[in-house]
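Open question from group meeting: does this chain pack into something compact, or does most of it stay loose? Before anyone orders reagents, we agreed to write out a predicted structure and look at it together. Recording both the input and the output here so the notebook holds the full record.
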Amino acid sequence: MLLGVYLRGSRLVAKSDSKESEIRKLIKTICDEGCYSKLGRNAISELVGGGEEALDAFLKMQHKLPKTDLHPRDLADTISDVFCEFARKYSDALIDRFATGDIEEFQTFWALGYAEGQRSIDILLAGLKSKAQYSRWAAAESLIRRKSKQAIPALIERLNDRSSIVKTTILQAMKSNKRYRLPEALPALRRISSSKSNQKHSPGSVKTAEELVKLICGEDSF
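Structure tokens returned:
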């Protein structure tokens, strides 16, 4: 009987080691091929199919990935793409790892743009108030991508954000989609267009803000 238990335990260990080895090979392929190649895309899909165990393995390896000839920008895009694909299927697991500090804020907010469910929306809404401007930008981009009606008031409020990239993202969303063009946005839009600093450093934002005021109020609004 003890021998049977030992053999079963050995088989489980062997199976676990085999799966871990397979996950490592997939991560190596992803790093070698990148997200813009068919081999890389297939490896990402297969990795995500491994579920939370594969997510944990990738998180463990993300700061000591296998050596690769990929351009650093392509590697960064590939890592981001892996997290986005995990977010599509395992958003709760991704959020849980974010809560324990295992995944960076920016990566989490960007990936959740491809998730579903209220929990991920709540995380992104909170992300709009992050201290880091690129995290706020990622949260704004993801909420816009998710087409969340619930997020519209919070996005309009961020027109007062101190970061130009956050404001520009929201201005462009307002320009392309009338759902954001609400009267509540007018005070912030007028502040943007009348700011001397914006007129000097962000003339494109000033022009867009003026166009949006006209779209909301009519041509004779200035």
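Observations to bring back to the group:
Confidence is low (pLDDT under 50) at residues 9-14.
The chain has twelve helices and no strands.
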